[in-house]
UniProtKB/TrEMBL annotation:
InterPro entries (UniProt xref): Glyco_trans_2-like, Glycosyltransferase_2, Nucleotide-diphossugar_trans
Organism (species): Natrarchaeobius halalkaliphilus
Protein name: Glycosyltransferase family 2 protein
Lineage: Archaea, Methanobacteriati, Methanobacteriota, Stenosarchaea group, Halobacteria
PANTHER family in alphabetical order: SLR5056 PROTEIN, UNDECAPRENYL-PHOSPHATE 4-DEOXY-4-FORMAMIDO-L-ARABINOSE TRANSFERASE-RELATED
Region named Disordered: 55-78
Transmembrane residue ranges: 284-307, 319-343
Length: 357
């Protein structure tokens, strides 16, 4: 228990032999349940998990088992068992560690989703996510839990970009990819002050987890970005907690040239869904129309400019009037979009907080 709240930690693990054991053994004593999800590793990750769970359970021997309240959230079923049972085998807990094995490799987001489903069933007050490669400093976990326990936020996440010395620790190619996705996620999610949206060090309240629809979570690497959009539509408060990143001996397996386009496409779909759900269906705000009008006007302006160039070089028509009209349309469209962004920013302004050192 942490300040009278039961705490679960989801640890996704894929080929993390040599790292995962330390993550489990170093889990703070106040954590009640650890859901380690082995994503069909081909190395000794699973054996390491069981061994570390036994060591951890011996260390915590004598502590009374946590009194779990049963979840008030029924998990979706299709007649063949729960979503959780269809995707993974949940083994008996060894002390506070519940080892879970995927039936097939489902990726980092897929492993988080499985862990979230297990945490929801257990009805834990707060569920954190900690990677199995040791990149997250566990002494910082309480800083993610505090905003939720204090009821200042429903979701909190690490932010490795707030201070120059933290940013400096990030390799350049990652920093560029992160900056692009930070900007796109601001637009898509409506959390305009939130940075470093790919940060997998997070904590979420039971209520928020029950609300966001875990069954439909995106399973590729952009799962954190996807979650932010869903949190925004549901009016959840987000805390961005400044913290350093730890880069050690682990090997990066992210292919940024695939990652950035894939996540960008998902964010675009999510953005359109958010506008529709938040501003047209659940409530109404003209900003959704401003966005559409702005995009349409810019589109017409751009087409007009292409025609202008064609007319100039193929038909030798004069350039000036057509160019001026196209530019005017692009400017008007940009004004509509800026206005929409300002309104959108205002809408979620009170739902965002930054936690500094
Ligand atoms: N690469 C990879 N990781 C997975 C997969 N399934 C679960 N994971 C786990 O998801 C977590 C995050 O994956 P990482 O590859 O470390 O992603 P990252 O931390 O954003 O990127 P790095 O900075 O390269 O470590 C780790 O704990 C992995 O073990 C998978 O299919 N592939
Ligand atoms: Mg990692």
């Amino acid at each position: 228990m942490y300040r009278d709240h039961s705490i679960g930690v989801v640890v996704p693990a894929y080929n993390e032999a040599g790292f995962i054991g330390d993550v489990i053994r170093e889990m703070p004593a106040y954590v009640d349940s650890v859901f380690v999800v082995d994503d069909c590793s081909s190395d000794t990750t699973w054996d390491d998990v069981l061994e570390a769970a036994r060591v951890d359970s011996n260390q915590h021997d004598g502590q009374p088992p946590r009194d779990t309240q049963s979840s008030d959230v029924p998990l979706a079923t299709d007649g063949s068992g729960s979503v959780l049972a269809r995707r993974a085998t949940v083994h008996d807990a060894v002390g506070r560690v519940t080892p879970i094995q995927h039936h097939e490799n489902l990726g980092a987001g897929g492993a988080i989703k499985t862990g979230y489903l297990a945490a929801l069933e257990d009805g834990l007050d707060v569920t954190a996510t900690v990677d199995g490669d040791g990149q997250m400093d566990l002494s910082q976990l309480s800083r993610l839990l505090d905003p939720i326990v204090d009821d200042d936020a429903d979701y909190s996440k690490g932010n490795r970009l707030l201070y120059p010395e933290y940013r400096g620790a990030m390799p350049t190619f990652r920093f560029v990819g992160n900056t692009i996705l930070t900007f796109l996620t601001k637009i898509a999610s409506g959390y305009w002050k939130t940075m470093d949206p790919q940060n997998g060090y997070t904590a979420i309240s039971h209520q928020a987890l029950a609300t966001v629809g875990v069954e439909n979570m995106y399973e590729y690497y952009g799962y954190c970005n996807d979650l932010l959009v869903k949190l925004n539509v549901n009016g959840m408060r987000v805390a961005d907690v400044a913290m350093p990143a730890v880069y050690g001996d682990e090997e990066s397996s992210i292919t940024y040239t695939r990652y950035v386009p894939n996540v960008s496409a998902m964010l675009f779909r999510n953005f359109l869904w958010r506008l529709k759900a938040k501003y047209l269906v659940l409530d109404f705000h003209p900003l959704a129309l401003f966005y559409l009008l702005g995009a349409g006007t810019i589109g017409v302006g751009a087409l007009g400019f292409s025609w202008t160039l064609y007319a100039k070089y193929a038909l030798n028509d004069p350039l000036f009037v057509r160019t001026a009209s196209s530019l005017l349309l692009v400017s008007i469209g940009s004004m509509f979009i800026t206005l929409a962004m300002v309104f959108d920013l205002k809408e979620s302004e009170d739902d965002e907080m930054a936690v500094f050192e």
